[in-house]
Specification:
Elements (H helix, E strand, L loop, with lengths): L1 H13 L3 E2 H8 L3 H13 L3 E6 L2 E6 L4 H10 L2 H13 L4 H8 L3 H13 L3 E5 L5 E5 L2 H8 L6 H18 L1
Antiparallel strand pairs: 1-3, 2-3, 4-5
């Protein structure tokens, strides 16, 4: 019993921000088993479970709320692509980001809603009300981004969304 709990804790420690289903899939455990052990770990104060953007994500202690929101969003491929673009190019216009990533503007806006709400990206408006996207905390964003790799199912979901968007745009 404790072996599975230790295994779950080690996996959460190595992959901060994993959501519940991904944790169960990667460890090949039944959802009820993961639920039981994550609750025990949470009651012991070893992990933090946080409902973010429609999923429960798990973290070891030591991450502040901004880092937890940021790590949860980094699990999405399109979000990572947007942030990498902004890290590489600096403040940019939304159309430039959408064109460079070959995504629909509506897809970008959907992800931007979460990024702005999480205070990862800000929308700056000039005197003519034109929007420029900029990272709120570029150094911290780059540091956290380096610690994330996405799972295959997460990449499939992101690519499916992009595919549907491309069909809708035509």
């Amino acid at each position: 019993m404790a072996h599975q709990r230790d295994r779950i804790f080690a996996h959460i420690d190595a992959h901060a921000g994993l959501h519940f289903n991904e944790l169960a899939r990667q460890l090949d455990l039944a959802p009820g088993q993961v639920q039981y052990h994550t609750r025990k770990l949470e009651h012991q104060g070893k992990i933090v479970a946080e409902a973010l953007f429609g999923q429960t994500h798990y973290f070891t202690t030591g991450y502040d709320p901004w880092e937890r929101r940021t790590l949860a969003l980094f699990r999405r491929e399109t979000v990572r692509d947007v942030l990498i673009y902004l890290l590489e190019h600096g403040p940019s216009r939304p159309n430039a980001v959408a064109d460079a990533l070959d995504i629909a503007r509506s897809t970008l806006e959907w992800h931007l809603d979460n990024l702005v709400e999480a205070a990862i990206v800000e929308k700056r408006r000039d005197e003519q009300n034109r929007v420029t996207l900029a990272l709120c905390r570029p150094a911290e964003t780059a540091r956290l981004l380096g610690s994330i790799t996405s799972s295959v199912p997460d990449r499939f979901v992101d690519r499916f969304i992009r595919l549907v968007d491309s069909f809708l745009a035509e």
